[in-house]
Amino acid sequence: MTDKGVQTINRALDIIEILSMERQGLGVTEIGNRTGLHKSTAHRLLNTLAERGYIEREPQNGSYRLGLKFVEVSSIYLNKIELKTEAQPFLRKLVETVGQPAHLAILNGTDAIYIEKIEALSSIRLYSQIGRRIPAYCSALGKALMAGLNESDLNKLADQTDFYPYTQNTILNKADLLKSVDLVRKKGYAVDDEEHDEGVRCIAAPVYDYTGRIIASVSTAGDKKIISKERDDEIGKYVKEAAEGISRRMGYTNPVYPAF
Amino acid sequence: MTDKGVQTINRALDIIEILSMERQGLGVTEIGNRTGLHKSTAHRLLNTLAERGYIEREPQNGSYRLGLKFVEVSSIYLNKIELKTEAQPFLRKLVETVGQPAHLAILNGTDAIYIEKIEALSSIRLYSQIGRRIPAYCSALGKALMAGLNESDLNKLADQTDFYPYTQNTILNKADLLKSVDLVRKKGYAVDDEEHDEGVRCIAAPVYDYTGRIIASVSTAGDKKIISKERDDEIGKYVKEAAEGISRRMGYTNPVYPAF
DNA sequence: AACTGTGTTTTATTATATGAAACACGATGA
DNA sequence: TCATCGTGTTTCATATAATAAAACACAGTT
User: What whole-number distance in Å separates Cα of residue B228 and Cα of residue B236?
Assistant: First the structure.
């Protein structure tokens, strides 16, 4: 066996990830075909995962789909994150103040991953969902996170970034991205100026922990008529207040916020 | 090997579930001790799970914790459920109408599991969280789900139920539970009259699919001063409207709702 | 009635996972 | 400063668990 980890676990995770991409369940033979496994092998792996609730078998047609155990484990995990717990009241206040949904995200590779979202009423449908990823280069949350990286890590991340023009405003090269990150450091907040979704603008600020490192970012997001250019500084102030409040709860002691 | 499924998968899931219960990470040796595995075995399983993002290693102290991949898989899964997608606008409307959080849940064993929660502003902190389970016998969501079971399944579920007195109002025996389910069938909606949390009342109604079976339930929940006894019929009407709307979206064709 | 494809079970085989041993390293105490 | 201890990591001989080929059961189709 080569040094590629435990084969059986990788096979099981292959099955899980294939099923996670399907709206309908898949049968044993189909799962076997897609994973390159013999159907009897797939069958035994499926049954073990089903026994534990990570996969469910539909009695009607015998197909397999993901089980609720993932939702449970995810929920348990998310609700044990101190950051998320401490952030709740500040995010709620931000929603009340700006009237738009608020988010909390952390950096993962070249993406930001939403770990909390507080909805607002009567707001437009947004891309954000807990658990979802958004590329760092074209999101306010991501750029706020990038602003906290040292130059070496920042350059490395920019080099790994695949630029894709989601809109006419999307940043498409490293130089522009670094300029944008520099602007975040100057203003203390990041802006997504319809860079990911037409008509949607976002404003984000970084969250620090007790070591002074940026561990997350907070944002408000909504229709460009509400999160308008003219209100950037005003809304930026609210977002920074929320982010600073969370930072202090996470042990941030530097009297200066943000620490750019 | 006995017929207990694939040992390696069970071992990996044991590790995952142990880590999901910890706020802090755990070290290799500690994980080995708690799972009965040799530390070198635990090490290899951990590394494979880490390689795939289901577990993360904290560089500072080398301990392991759950990774974001669970949140991602869970999110992908939840957002592929047609039921949840179709329910969104009805739940939002329910929140606007009643002013309290709205929930969607499905039955799993003797519990109801929340698969969607739409928050309201300025509402009290509730027990409900996406992914969390609540015993069916002492929740409106659960009783609405139970009301859709045939007598055989209903009796079986009641027999399997461990009754625990969460509050002075909690149902504590099978006879009272069956009476309560009967009342749900009469009124068309279920009530949690502070049966799980002091001061919190909930009202729920069943969601049917195209086969006419109950597949989920919808509820509103909040402070007993707002979800007061006097408003049961009024709020019950709103909840039934939301649940019926979702049912229709799921292909429910029976002109009579609910179909008790 | 025959055929086809899927799901399930059995079991001989062997490839993989295991764990014992050894090593590296950091923390601790004498 | 050095010895000890406990943890994390790696190696590798081997036991055993996982595999997949074969066979069977079953439902749907022609």
Answer: 11
The answer to whether A113 contacts B72, with C-beta atoms less than 8 Å apart, is yes
- What are the tens digits of pLDDT across the range A204-237? 999 999 888 899 999 999 999 999 999 999 999 9
3-state secondary structure (DSSP) of residue B81: coil
SS3 state of residue A61:
coil
Per domain, the residue ranges of chain A are 7-71, 81-249
- The pLDDT-based confidence of A3 (bands split at 50, 70, 90) is low
CA A212 to chain centre: 21
Residue A246: phi, psi to the nearest 5?
-65, -40
In chain B, which residues have their Cβ closer than 8 Å to the Cβ of A115?
A: 68, 71
B73-120 pLDDT per residue, tens: 999 888 888 899 999 999 999 999 999 999 999 999 999 999 999 988
Decide if A79 contacts B117 (C-beta within 8 A): no
Round to a whole number and report the distance in Å from the CA of A62 to the C1' of C7.
8
* Among B30, B35, B36, B28, CA closest to B62: B28
Identify the CATH number of the domain defined by range B7-71: 1.10.10.10
- What ipTM does this complex have? 0.89
A243 Cβ neighbours under 8 A, 6+ residues apart: A90, A204, A205, A206, A207, A217, A218, A257, A258
What topology is assigned to A81-249 in CATH? Answer: Beta-Lactamase (3.30.450)
Q: Give the whole-angstrom CA distance, residue B8 versus residue A17.
A: 18
